[in-house]
């Protein structure tokens, strides 16, 4: 998971905000959750474009990343680990985008024995992950860069069987709204675009294993998500947007729902 217990006033050391975008069209992207299904797919897509990719995860990062950052479990230590790795490469310029592909899923009701365990896991993998992404962005993202957070289409819904999941995803959406309202006042570089990906179900290996009998025709292919993320990184994102991918008949559209 990712998170930070540092005070808002303290910032991990990083390059000055005046740094400009990467030159030559080759982007520099930090992928949180690079070891998961979506993170791996995105790392492959970025490698094919010849971009520099920093992969960060508590699990093993895929070989496609340019620089792998092994993350500890403790939230503040994760911020420190990422900052240390990025400082070693700061001469090449700031990041163009921070894409948080971390997520997770947990079911549960008030009567579930594992309710708190599921909630802790979701807070760690979704909300803390988003806070750490923001902390890193405050010092290492270029002005006008992209900060992408992991939301969910179910976030606005009232689903009594998903108590560990829905409220945490709603918190991620709220965090994104707060930062997008005024990125500079939120401590981000000026002009940062803060967006949220809010899928229903992504077609990941883990989801196929967990739901072997499901109808996957409406699941969103990872390649479609990666193509859209690249478009956002290249400047096509709308600040404050919550993008919900909707797949039907093999075609995926990304609808702004908030």
Distance between the termini: 26 Å
The largest beta-sheet arranges its strands as 3-2-1-4-5-6-9-10
- Portion of residues in beta strands equals 15-25%
Q: What's the gyration radius in Å?
A: 17 Å
Q: State the low-pLDDT regions, or none.
A: 1-11, 13-24
Number of contiguous helices: 6
Shape: globular
Walk me through this protein's architecture.
About 35% of the residues lie in helices and about 20% in strands. β1 (about 30), α1 and β2 form a beta-alpha-beta unit. Strands 3-2-1-4-5-6-9-10 form an eight-stranded mixed beta sheet, sandwiched between helices. A two-stranded parallel ribbon has the order 7-8. It has helices at about 35-50, 75-85, 115-140, 165-180, 205-210, 220-235; strands at about 30, 50-55, 65-70, 95-100, 140-150, 195, 200-205, 220, 240-250, 250-255. The chain is α/β, with parallel strands linked by helices. The longest helix is centred in the middle third of the chain and has 26 residues, at about 115-140.
Can you summarize this structure?
By secondary structure, the chain is of the alpha/beta class.
List the helices and strands and how they pair.
Layout: E1 28-32, H1 37-48, E2 52-57, E3 67-70, H2 75-87, E4 95-100, H3 115-140, E5 141-150, H4 166-181, E6 193-197, E7 202-203, H5 205-210, E8 220-221, H6 222-236, E9 242-248, E10 251-256
Parallel strand pairs: 1-2, 1-4, 2-3, 4-5, 5-6, 6-9, 7-8
Antiparallel strand pairs: 9-10
């Amino acid at each position: 998971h990712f998170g930070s217990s540092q005070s808002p006033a303290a910032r991990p050391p990083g390059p000055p905000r005046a740094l400009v975008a990467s030159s030559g069209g080759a982007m520099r992207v930090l992928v949180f959750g690079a070891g998961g299904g979506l993170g791996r797919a995105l790392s492959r897509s970025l490698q094919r474009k010849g971009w520099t990719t920093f992969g960060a995860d508590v699990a093993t990062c895929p070989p496609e990343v340019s620089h792998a950052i092994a993350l500890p479990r403790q939230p503040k230590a994760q911020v420190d680990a990422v900052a240390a790795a990025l400082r070693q490469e700061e001469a090449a310029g700031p990041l163009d985008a921070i894409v948080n592909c971390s997520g997770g899923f947990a079911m549960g009701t008030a009567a579930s024995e594992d309710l708190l365990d599921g909630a802790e896991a979701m807070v760690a993998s979704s909300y803390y992950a988003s806070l750490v992404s923001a902390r890193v962005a405050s010092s290492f993202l270029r002005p006008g860069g992209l900060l992408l957070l992991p939301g969910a289409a179910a976030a606005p819904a009232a689903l009594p069987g998903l108590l560990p999941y829905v409220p945490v995803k709603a918190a991620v959406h709220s965090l994104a709204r707060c930062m997008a309202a005024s990125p500079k006042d939120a401590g981000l570089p000026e002009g940062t675009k803060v967006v949220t990906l809010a899928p229903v179900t992504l077609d990941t290996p883990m989801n196929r294993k967990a739901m072997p009998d499901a109808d996957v025709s409406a699941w969103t292919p990872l390649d479609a998500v990666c193509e859209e993320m690249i478009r956002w990184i290249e400047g096509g994102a709308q600040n404050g947007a919550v993008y919900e991918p909707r797949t039907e008949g093999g075609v995926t559209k990304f609808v702004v729902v908030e």
